[in-house]
C-alpha cells in the first residue's frame, strides 16, 4: 500500500529558541523537564507515523496530547522545530512561502471544528473560496462547487447564507469547501466535536458514505475513541506530545499496551467492533470428490464447488460416510452464511442454534467458519492476545 503521508521524528517546541529543549529531549528528557528547566512547552516529541493512501487515519488523545498540534504542523500552520513531513516522498518542511501556499491550495485541505464560513457570502461562494484563491475561472469553480454541494446533500442550498443552515448543514459546507479543491489529503481537526450528538452521528455516517465514493486520504483528529473506532482504518493515540500506540482499531482494543490506552477501550462494545473475519477459523480441505471439496474438521464440513462457493454442509455422520465411501451425498442447506465484514452483533443475530456458520468474501467464496463459542470468546476476550503484524506500541 502506498504511503501518501509520512511523519518522521517530528518535534514542535513552543519557544523562540527550541534548540535547548530538543537537546533535553534527545537525552531522554520529557516535556515536564523541559518546562521546568526552560519554561518551553513541548507540543510534539519525536512523532513518527505513516498514513496510507485512501486511509481514514485517526489521531486521538486527551486534551493537550498533541493531536491538533500535529495536524497544524502537517500543513505548517505551526512550524515544526525538527523532523520531516513527507508528502508522496517530498519533504514539505523546507518549502518556501510560495511553494507552501501551492501545497495548501492543491494538496492538503483542512476542515476545522468551528466551521469558519464567511457569513456575508452565500453557501456556494463559501465552497468556491479555495478555488478562487487558486485562480480557477468563475464558470469552472461554480460548476465544481455545485457538484460537491450535491455530493454532500446540499444541492438546493447553494444560494442561501450560512445563518440559514443548521449546525450539521454548515459543517457539510465546510466539508464541501475542502472537497472542492480535490486535494490529496483532507485533515479534519475535531471536525464534528461542536455538533449535537445526533447531528454528529449523521455527519460520521455521511463521511463514511463519501469515503466509499471518493477514497480520500483523511487524517482525522478526535478525542472520542468511539468516533475513532467507527471511522478509522488505523488509529494513532497520543499522550504528552508523544505517539504511544498505533494500529488497527481491533488490535488496539485487544492489546492496549498501557493503562492510558486501556482507559479508552474499557467501555467498547466489542460485538460492534469485531467482524467475522477476526473470529473465523480457517478450514483446511479434508476430502475431495467430483461433487466438490469438503473443508472442516471431524465435527463436520462445508462442501464447496470448484469456485470455492458453499454448496451445503455435512454433519459428522455424513462426513464419516463420505470418507469411507469416497462419495459425497447431498449436502444439507441447514447452515448460516455471513460476510467476512459482518460485525459480530450482526452474526449473532443471524445465528441459529446448532447450525454451522460459513464466512464468505465479497465474491461469495468460502474463507472460514465459526461457531457460537468463537463469537462469545471474542466479545469476552481480554487484552492478552498478540498484536497482529504491522501494529505497534511506541
Features:
394 residues; alpha/beta; Rossmann fold; CBS-domain; 16 helices; 18 strands
Notes on the structure:
The protein is 37% helix and 25% strand. It is of the alpha/beta class. It has two domains: 54-270, Rossmann fold; 276-379, CBS-domain, CATH 3.10.580. β11 and β12 form a beta hairpin. The longest helix has 18 residues, at 197-214. It is globular and about 80 Å long. The two termini are 22 Å apart. Mean pLDDT is 88; it is low at 383-389.
Describe the protein's topology.
Layout: E1 3-14, H1 19-26, H2 31-38, E2 41-52, E3 56-60, H3 67-74, E4 82-87, E5 90-91, H4 97-106, E6 108-112, H5 123-134, H6 138-151, H7 167-180, E7 185-189, H8 197-214, E8 217-222, H9 225-231, E9 234-239, E10 242-247, H10 249-254, H11 259-265, H12 270-273, H13 276-279, E11 285-288, E12 293-297, E13 300-304, E14 310-315, H14 316-325, E15 336-339, H15 344-350, E16 357-360, E17 366-370, H16 372-379, E18 392-393
Parallel strand pairs: 3-8, 3-9, 6-7, 7-8, 15-16
Antiparallel strand pairs: 1-2, 1-4, 4-5, 9-10, 10-18, 11-12, 12-13, 13-14, 16-17
Amino acid at each position: 500500500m502506498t504511503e501518501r503521508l509520512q511523519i518522521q521524528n517530528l518535534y514542535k517546541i513552543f519557544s523562540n529558541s527550541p534548540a535547548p529543549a530538543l537537546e533535553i529531549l534527545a537525552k531522554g528528557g520529557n516535556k515536564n523537564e523541559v518546562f521546568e528547566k526552560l519554561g518551553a512547552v513541548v507540543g510534539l516529541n519525536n512523532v513518527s507515523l505513516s498514513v496510507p493512501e485512501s486511509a481514514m487515519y485517526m489521531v486521538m488523545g486527551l486534551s493537550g496530547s498533541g493531536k491538533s498540534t500535529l495536524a497544524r504542523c502537517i500543513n505548517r500552520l505551526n512550524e515544526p522545530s525538527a523532523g520531516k513531513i513527507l508528502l508522496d516522498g517530498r519533504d514539505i518542511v523546507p518549502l518556501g512561502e510560495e511553494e507552501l501556499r501551492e501545497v495548501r491550495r492543491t494538496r492538503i485541505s483542512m476542515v476545522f471544528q468551528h466551521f469558519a464560513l464567511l457569513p456575508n457570502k452565500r453557501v456556494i461562494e463559501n465552497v468556491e473560496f479555495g478555488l478562487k484563491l487558486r485562480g480557477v475561472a468563475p464558470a469552472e469553480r461554480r460548476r465544481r462547487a455545485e457538484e460537491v454541494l450535491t455530493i454532500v446533500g446540499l444541492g438546493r442550498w447553494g444560494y442561501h447564507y450560512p445563518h440559514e443552515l443548521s449546525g450539521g448543514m454548515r459543517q457539510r459546507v465546510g466539508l464541501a469547501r475542502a472537497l472542492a479543491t480535490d486535494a490529496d489529503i483532507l485533515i479534519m481537526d475535531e471536525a464534528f466535536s461542536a455538533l449535537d450528538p445526533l447531528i454528529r452521528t449523521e455527519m460520521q455516517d455521511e463521511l463514511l458514505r463519501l469515503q466509499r465514493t471518493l477514497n480520500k486520504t483523511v487524517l482525522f483528529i478526535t478525542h472520542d475513541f468511539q468516533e475513532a473506532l467507527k471511522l478509522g482504518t488505523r488509529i494513532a493515540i497520543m499522550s504528552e506530545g508523544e505517539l504511544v500506540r498505533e494500529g488497527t482499531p481491533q488490535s488496539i482494543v485487544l492489546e492496549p499496551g498501557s493503562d492510558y490506552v486501556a482507559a479508552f477501550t474499557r467501555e467498547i462494545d466489542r460485538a460492534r467492533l469485531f467482524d467475522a473475519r477476526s473470529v473465523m477459523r480457517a478450514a483446511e480441505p479434508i476430502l475431495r470428490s467430483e461433487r466438490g471439496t469438503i473443508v472442516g474438521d471431524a465435527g463436520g464440513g462445508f462442501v464447496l464447488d470448484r469456485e470455492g462457493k458453499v454448496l451445503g454442509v455435512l454433519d459428522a455422520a455424513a462426513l464419516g460416510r463420505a470418507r469411507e465411501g469416497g462419495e459425497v451425498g447431498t449436502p444439507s442447506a441447514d447452515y448460516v452464511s455471513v460476510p467476512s465484514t459482518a460485525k459480530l452483533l450482526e452474526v449473532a443475530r443471524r445465528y441459529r442454534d446448532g447450525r454451522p456458520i460459513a464466512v464468505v468474501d465479497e465474491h461469495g467464496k468460502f474463507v472460514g467458519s465459526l461457531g457460537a463459542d468463537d463469537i462469545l470468546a471474542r466479545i469476552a476476550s481480554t487484552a492478552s492476545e498478540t498484536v497482529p503484524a504491522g501494529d505497534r506500541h511506541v
